[in-house]
Task: structure prediction
Amino acid sequence: MNLMQSISQIFSRLTEVPDQENSPFRYKIVRRNVAILMLLITLAPLSLMTIINYYEYRSVLRDEIVRPQRVLVNKAKHSIELFLANRLATVNFIASAYSYDELADESNLNRIFRVLKREFEGFVDLGLIDSAGFQVSYAGPYSLKGKDYSEQSWFENVQVNGAYVSEVFKGYRRFPHIALAVHHLPENGKPWVVRATINTAKLDELIASMGLDAESDAFLVNREGVLQTNSKYYGQALDRCPCIPSVSYEPTVVERVDPRGRSVMVTYCYFPNADFIFMLIKPQAQVMKAWYTLKADLFIVFAISVGLIVAVVLRLTKSMFDKMKEADDKRALALKEMEHSHKLSSIGRLAAGVAHEINNPLAVINEKAGLMKDLIEFTPGFPDKDRFLGPVGAIIGSVERCRTITHRLLGFARRMDVEIQVLDVNDVIKETVGFLEKEALYRNIKLNLNFARELPKIESDRGQLQQVFLNVLNNAFQAMEDGGTVSVATFERDEATIGVTIQDTGHGMSEDTMKHIFEPFFTTKASGKGTGLGLSITYGLVKRLGGDVEVQSKVGKGTRFTVYLPRKHQDSQGS
Amino acid sequence: MKETLFMGKITATATHELKNVLAIIRESGGLMQDFLDMVNDGSFKYKEKFGGILSKVEDQVRRGDEISTQLNRFAHTPDSDFTSENVPEVIDQVIALTQRIARSREVSFVNRPHQSMLTLTCEPVKLRMLLFQSMELLMKNAKRGERIEIRSRLNENKKTFIEFCMESDSGRNQSLDDLETSGEWKELVATAGAINSKAGLSSDSGILTLELVNMDYK
Amino acid sequence: MKEFKVLMVDDEEDFVRTLDERMKMRNLDSNVALSGEQALEILEKEVPDVMLLDLKMPGMDGMEVLKRAREAFPGVQVVMLTGHGSEQDEAEARRLGVFEYLRKPVPIENLMKVLKAAYQKKLQESMVAATFAEAGEFDTAQEILDKSRKR
Result:
């Protein structure tokens, strides 16, 4: 429960987006969190899978490796058991087949021993011991006749169990051997014991026949940890062996560190009928070689996967956040532009309000001057009529001039607000040309209109477009002597844009002039004539409408303005 | 900034022209006054009347000239990103500009600076706009005859603090909540934000407060 | 005999008094109101033919006066004369049925032309109204006017 809570806490912390929107670290933090989250959800299952595989493979492989060893140990144990049982059966046969007296006769016993030695390998000696534990007869290399065994534990043991196999011992002899004793109880008469010893060379032979490699070691050991056969690494027979594993009559595998510091795998098995343990010792490094290779492969695959995932996640989050940042920046820019255009209308509102205010005193002056004019005109025989009418006329004329100025100014302020509608540019041009017809007539200027039929309608602002065309046309008129020609043509430039060309036969412009014509307050006219704002305003207006203006000109030949306008209005263009 | 630049230039030229034309009216009036003064024999029965009219004309010329001057000064607001200005003077300017709207709403503004010099480095156009928007909002929200004091001072954090105080507490048409959700208020906050400043509303007498900071030269 | 009655509504006293004087010199029966409220009071007492109305005034503004006058005195033609000529205001005023929307300052000759035209329109409308009223087709003058406008 606690774990679940803390995990969900971590997740909620990672998925949280920090509040400080303006912080430049925001993207970094979010990006880091997303990266961590993605790594977590991809790497966690991968790691889990790897760990499960690791243990699964290990157990499977261990089984694979261990099974043959168990089989080997079992086989070796069986061979040894079989050998010992075989020898014991032989001794038992001798004890049963011959009578006490036959065996007590030393020459007879010697004969039997000779046959025995010839037929069965490993027998060292043979002797008869009576029920009191006294060695009655003996055949073999030592002189043991007359020896009393009654005090020895094996003698008691053989009397109770009927048969006995000793552990390896040196006893009176100089090399290790095993004693086999059989207790015979005839139907009538005293019981006796036949005792034989065999050397352990046969056991060594049996172990050698397992065909072990150089690194491995196999030997017999008794339950007290005394080596029964020679070992390659852990001493000779009857040395003490370092480790005794827990009792098991089935072949069992344990991992140990041996006295030489090697990590080893011990396969062992207890003998059920004798005090022996068979042990097979192999170094881990050798046994688990396949496992180590697999483990290394597993790790390499895991490391490569992790590397790949990390790289992909980092790349992905980076590109994702770069895109996000870009989009946010764009939005911020759009917002800033919006705020900017907003500011314009606010400032425009303020200026317009003040400009309107000027009309009030002008209206009063107009009426006051008008009244004086009325009085002068309506009064018959007004003295010095003309002397007074002069300044009154000047005042009324001045008021009219002021009126024009404020209206022009207000018109400009109004133009700061764009009102978009669907309109036919041909119509707009026709209306605009209408303003100039009188002047064209008066100055004998020819107006050529070449309108594209079926010109697509565009989304734009009528008032601003009129202002644009009026400015350009005015410019054309001013550039020409009386009697010139102005050609206006409309055309569809591409699917998204229409174009309007306005061409005059005026005096044209130099390249230097062309570079500057869209700058505010640039004028080629004598100072005092015009403010030089016309074309810069035109340029600003067209840009605001999302369009563009091009100008081509040749000195002495004329100028051509081309205005491009988008068919669809876009809000981001600062309207 | 291009458009504000155009707007400013256009307005500046227009007001300059207006002042010139108003000067012509003034001179024409003066000329007529001279004629009137020369007539002393009582043959001119409208002498008194014309004298009255001409003085009225002169008053109106002065009025028009004042408005032109204000507008001209406004048009010459530096179009730079940052300029150091004296806040009480700027407030005076904006009050003069909004006088007309204020009068038609029968609201008056009084400039009450805590100190006569209170310099602030700011975007000049935005500062004026912020003041204008604040005043516009309060005018819409004030009762007829309301007097709104504009108190400016440096606060303990060395920030310029402008407080708009209404004389009567019941001077509001809208609740504070309505005001805070209005488009005008959001506009105002956006303007304030654009110059790293804060705007706040409260229910006590200092209904609207602005906290302005010096902008750095970047 | 004066030509027709004009009510001029403007808070700028110097302006409206001077204009009043000039109207009288031009043989019009002119009257002055200095606020929207005052204009409505005068309308109750003495209905003019044409009303010349300023837009921005303290108290009741011109748009409000226009609305009420069009409702209560549909026969009166209204001409707006204002220094504040935003296009929205003009559109709104025309929607409410002004005869013309003029911007201050305006030359007296133009003003006179507009006022006379407004008076002509008023005469026409009342004649139509009278005809229909005689025919007994309509109950109120407003309905008659509405009808006549549609035609």
Remarks:
- Helices of chain C lie at 13-25, 36-45, 62-72, 87-95, 108-135, 141-150.
- The domain at 5-150 of chain C is CATH 3.40.50.2300 (Rossmann fold).
